[in-house]
Design a protein that fits this description.
Helices cover about 0% and strands about 55% of the residues. With about 120 residues, the chain is mainly β. The strands form two sheets. Strands 2, 4, 5, 6, 9, 10 and 11 form a seven-stranded mixed beta sheet that branches. A four-stranded antiparallel beta sheet has the order 1-3-8-7, with no helix packed on it. It is globular.
């Protein structure tokens, strides 16, 4: 059973830092690309960052240069280091993986429960 469990969210002041963690289980983590998404109130969920199985990172939107995605394969964990946070970074942050389902010959997306990040003074 695939599980993604995020943690590390909270209240942080503008300009501060926070590190989110996502512990994965139930699939071949070291062979899977992982992603972080976020969803702010009243907005659609958006991709924030992704990391391939070999550690190549990509960033989307306004987070480039401020956020860093990384992974620890022995610990089955993907991280999102958030630096110089802004009020517009306030959102629920979700961990995501897309896995190929051999029996169904299709891909399936999995999500964690999310962790709230609030940037406010």
């Amino acid at each position: 059973q695939v599980q993604l469990v995020e943690s590390g969210g909270g209240l942080v002041q503008p300009g501060g830092s926070l590190r989110l963690s996502c512990v994965a289980s139930g699939f071949a983590f070291s062979r899977s690309a992982m992603r972080w998404y976020r969803q702010a109130p009243g907005k659609e969920r958006e991709k924030v960052a992704g990391i391939t199985s070999v550690g190549v990172a990509n960033y989307y939107g306004s987070v480039e240069g401020r956020f860093t995605i990384s992974r620890d394969n022995p610990e089955n964990t993907v991280y999102l280091q958030m630096n110089n946070v802004l009020p517009e970074d306030t959102a629920v942050y979700y961990c995501n993986v897309v896995l190929f389902q051999v029996a169904e010959n299709t891909e399936r997306e999995y999500w964690g429960q999310g962790t709230q990040v609030t940037v406010s003074s």
